[in-house]
Design a protein that fits this description.
The chain has 522 residues and is of the alpha+beta class. It is built from eleven helices and 31 strands.
């Protein structure tokens, strides 16, 4: 009985085992049939297979022309929308078009169409089979103008609130004025670039700026002393090769470096004055008997209202401070260092400035007209710009993209004498005309410079009303004229004779609109 049961169990087991090859064979046949069916279905198919995406946009079952049309429409819609950039109360906007952002659609479509078509018949059919379960997303190659992006981020980096202010100094007559720094914010430039590009790719409409709290550097008196101190230098000229050296006064602290360190170590003061002593050179340029600054390299005029006494005083004073400045080859000019802090002690007056989209008053108002006039003279002299920032709103004395704002302690205008010989700045303000010229030695090849300003966007202004019973019924008075805002790119074109040598992006500038303010009876 027991043997019979065992034989019966073994017979069942053998029957099951004998069915296994049959089942496996059936599965293989079914699978091959499915692959064959897919292969037959795909013969003559000229469309992208299922479950294929480009940058998250489905192009499944579309011809390349259909997919191209769909992608162009989607990308154009995404790239035309502004991205809001924020940090605390600061906000600005950014358009991908400002950096000429684009997707490489043709290569993306080529990759999409090739899925399921690049291997042999077996691998292609496997790809077709698994496309029902696996999403293929192609990340397209992108293109954009890195110089424009860098310029936009650089502008943002000086606009964020509570910027860190590093220690600074300038010379005013017989004193060296040293100002301690202030802790504050600094923008993470590299992270900002990543966030902006990521926002474009992912169609995000808002980003928060990556801003770090940093401490200002300590005042380094030893370093300042090494930069200020110099021995007197006589003027000289050589013929072969032609070279001119302008005389320099010797400069030294009138107190010891240790005494200066004691002054700056006082935690209760933010600014100290260090007395200076000068030693004149024995031979000046006038003693050389040659007009080494006889060639006018460039000149640029702007108009001002001479009847606006305070503003005119500021302009004349700034001109006097920069007039006659001589720069050796490679030397950098700093507007803030040469002109100094705009205070009543230094002779500057209260005049109109921009403040939060409205006109206000501040010490040294109008001085940016001098830095802007100098900026243009420097541009047309083909000198290298080191630091320059546009105003928050347009100004009426130079075209958009051709202004240079300054603010002592935070925003400077700097340029370098990139010529082979010394240059001299001649600045005058007379009878409503400011003229700044650059003089030097005529070189073998003199280039001409022109500017091309490309307006990207014109931004409308708002109008607000102020009500007062002092205004007669039915009458209105314009307290502040509205101004359009702009976004523009400025290109510097350098030519030799009639031949264009180079075309370089100088800046991409944004100007906020100035609201109109109308006064009327309630």
């Amino acid at each position: 009985m027991r043997d019979r049961l065992i034989r019966k169990r073994n017979n069942k087991k053998n029957k099951v085992i004998s069915f296994v090859p049959v089942i496996i064979a059936a599965i293989i046949i079914a699978f091959l049939f499915l692959l064959t069916f897919l292969s037959l279905m795909n013969i003559g198919n000229r469309k992208i297979i299922n479950n294929v995406y480009i940058n998250g946009i489905s192009v499944s079952s579309l011809s390349t022309n259909e997919a191209k049309e769909k992608l162009e429409k989607e990308f154009e819609n995404n790239l035309s929308q502004e991205i809001s950039i924020n940090f605390e109360d600061y906000t600005t906007t950014f358009l991908p078009a400002e950096i000429n952002f684009s997707y490489d659609i043709p290569s993306s479509l080529e990759k999409a169409y090739s899925i399921g078509r690049t291997g042999n018949i077996l691998t292609n059919n496997f790809t077709l089979l698994f496309s029902a379960f696996k999403k293929n997303n192609i990340t397209p190659s992108i293109n954009y103008d890195t110089d424009k992006l860098d310029n936009i981020i650089e502008n943002i980096s000086v606009e964020i609130p509570n910027l860190v202010i590093e220690p600074s100094y300038y010379i005013s007559n017989d004193e060296l004025i040293v100002t301690k720094g202030t802790d504050g914010n600094t923008l993470d430039i590299d992270k900002t670039k990543e966030l902006l590009i990521s926002a474009i790719l992912n169609n995000e409409k808002n980003i928060t700026l990556p801003v770090n709290k940093v401490s200002a550097q300590e005042v380094d008196i030893d370093k300042i002393y090494s930069e200020v101190y110099c021995e007197p230098q006589n003027a000289s000229v050589t013929k072969e090769p032609y070279s001119v050296s302008v005389e320099k006064q010797g400069v030294d602290f009138a107190i010891s470096v240790d005494e200066a360190k004691q002054l700056i170590s006082n935690p209760d003061i933010t600014e100290i004055s260090i007395p200076l002593k000068y030693t004149d050179a024995e031979i000046t340029v006038a003693d050389l008997g040659e007009d080494i600054f006889g060639y006018k390299i460039s000149s640029f005029p702007t108009k001002y209202d001479a009847t606006n006494t305070n503003r005119a005083t500021n302009l004349i004073l700034a001109c006097e401070k920069i007039n006659g400045t001589v720069l050796q080859p490679g030397e950098v000019f700093s507007f803030n260092k040469v002109v100094g802090e705009r205070t009543t002690k230094n002779g500057f007056k209260d005049a109109i400035i921009y403040s939060d989209g409205e006109l206000d008053y501040g010490i040294g108002g109008g001085i940016c007209q001098i830095s802007s006039t100098l900026y243009n003279a420097v541009l047309f002299a083909n000198l290298d710009i080191v630091e320059r920032k546009n105003h928050s709103m347009t100004v009426n004395y130079v075209p958009i993209g051709q202004d240079a704002t300054v603010s002592y302690g935070s925003i400077d205008f700097q340029f370098k004498n990139s010529r082979n010989y010394p240059i001299k700045i001649v600045a005058t303000a007379n009878s409503g005309i400011i003229t700044i010229s650059i003089y030097g030695v005529k070189e073998e090849q003199e280039y001409t410079v022109s500017l091309d300003v490309e307006t990207i966007e014109k931004i409308d202004y708002d109008t607000t009303y102020e009500y007062s019973s002092q205004i007669p019924v039915g009458q209105e008075f314009v307290k502040q004229t509205g101004k359009y805002g702009y976004k523009c790119s400025v290109y510097k074109i350098v030519s030799l004779g009639d031949k264009e040598i180079s075309r370089t992006l100088l800046s991409t500038d944004t100007y906020k609109p100035q609201k109109a303010i109308i006064q009327k009876h309630p």
